[in-house]
Design brief:
Layout: E1 6-9, H1 23-36, E2 40-43, H2 55-71, E3 79-82, H3 88-100, E4 105-108, H4 118-131, E5 136-139, H5 142-145, H6 151-160, E6 163-169, H7 179-186, E7 193-197, H8 199-203, E8 211-214, H9 216-219, H10 221-233, H11 239-253, H12 257-267, H13 284-294
Parallel strand pairs: 1-2, 1-8, 2-3, 3-4, 4-5, 5-6, 6-7, 7-8
Helix pairs in contact: 1-2, 3-4, 4-6, 11-13, 12-13
């Protein structure tokens, strides 16, 4: 089994008032997620706005997360790093830095200024595998990149690169039913974890998958762990928890993604400024809607 199974939490990268990464706040998020029982953490992905940080900032964030994951107790929570970049050279550079900082695995959404085709996508992962010997999760951002990985392409990657997992959107326009089953069937015997992203769809009852990849789980890990364990066991989740998570995802779905997480983090007691531009802070009415839902958090103190 790869380390990309179960519940993978994707924390924001908290910022200080002067727009620097708040490493103590990031470490606290990692420790909190680990203690709540998540199966892994991924830093500097879309939730963590990884492409907005300079190399030295990324390196400091990875090292802080790895140290927090190791200090969180037994078993140690794996810490993975998103290494997406606009060129293969940038991807490889970020991957090497992540490996040297102690990362357990990598997450990569291949993209370029112009949409890539399958051969170009595969070439990026082959270059990554040649440079760094770490397991990789393919982050399928089909809407943003205009390339939707096919079952055949995933098989190709599993056979020729270090790809051991895929993070697939749980709900996109024209996404066919049975997508998880199709990816699982194609990669049977190849050790690929088929995971889903998209909080609203996951909380709302998306099809079963090997993993859930979610930014929200890093902010409310106890509730997400409760939901994941119930779904994995085939039992009914706690109704209060499930209803609250649905209400929270409904509000977040109406906000800009990274900005919404930063606003929610502040309401939960996590010190952070809004994300770096071009993302804009959540307007006051959006903050008010989040605050109303947070006030109804079932039986849990606000987390920091």
């Amino acid at each position: 089994m790869t380390s990309f199974h179960g519940l993978l939490a994707y924390p924001i990268t908290p910022l200080t008032p002067d727009d620097a990464p708040d490493l103590d706040a990031l470490a606290a998020l990692v420790r909190g997620a680990a203690r709540a029982g998540v199966d892994g953490v991924v830093v500097l992905a879309s939730s963590g706005a990884g492409v907005t940080f300079a190399p030295e900032e990324r390196d400091a964030a990875v090292r802080a997360a790895v140290a927090a994951g190791s200090a969180a107790g037994s078993p140690r929570v794996p810490v993975h790093v998103a290494v997406s970049g606009a060129s293969t050279r940038e991807v490889v550079t970020r991957a090497r830095a992540a490996r040297d900082a102690g990362a357990d695995g990598l997450v990569l959404a291949p993209f370029s200024y112009l949409p890539l085709d399958e051969d170009e996508v595969v070439a990026v992962f082959e270059a990554l595998a040649s440079a760094v010997d770490l397991p990789v999760c393919y982050y399928n951002r089909s809407v943003q990149t205009a390339y939707d990985v096919t079952p055949g392409a995933l098989v190709r990657l599993a056979r020729t690169t270090t790809v051991t997992a895929v993070k697939d959107p749980a709900a996109t326009p024209a996404r066919p039913a049975g997508r998880v089953a199709a990816l699982r069937a194609a990669t049977e015997g190849l050790g690929v974890s088929v995971g889903l992203s998209g909080d609203a769809a996951i909380v709302g009852g998306a099809e079963a998958a090997d993993a859930w990849h979610t930014g929200l789980a890093a902010l409310v890990p106890a509730e997400y762990v409760t939901l994941r364990r119930a779904r994995a066991a085939g039992t009914a989740p706690d109704a209060q928890v499930a209803d609250w998570l649905r209400a929270l995802t409904d509000v977040l779905a109406s906000l800009r993604p990274v900005s919404g997480f930063h606003a929610l983090a502040t309401l939960l007691g996590v010190p952070t400024a809004p994300p770096r531009g071009p993302s804009l802070p959540v307007p006051s009415d959006g903050v008010a809607r989040l605050r109303e839902v947070v006030a109804r958090r079932p039986g849990r103190p606000t987390a920091g």
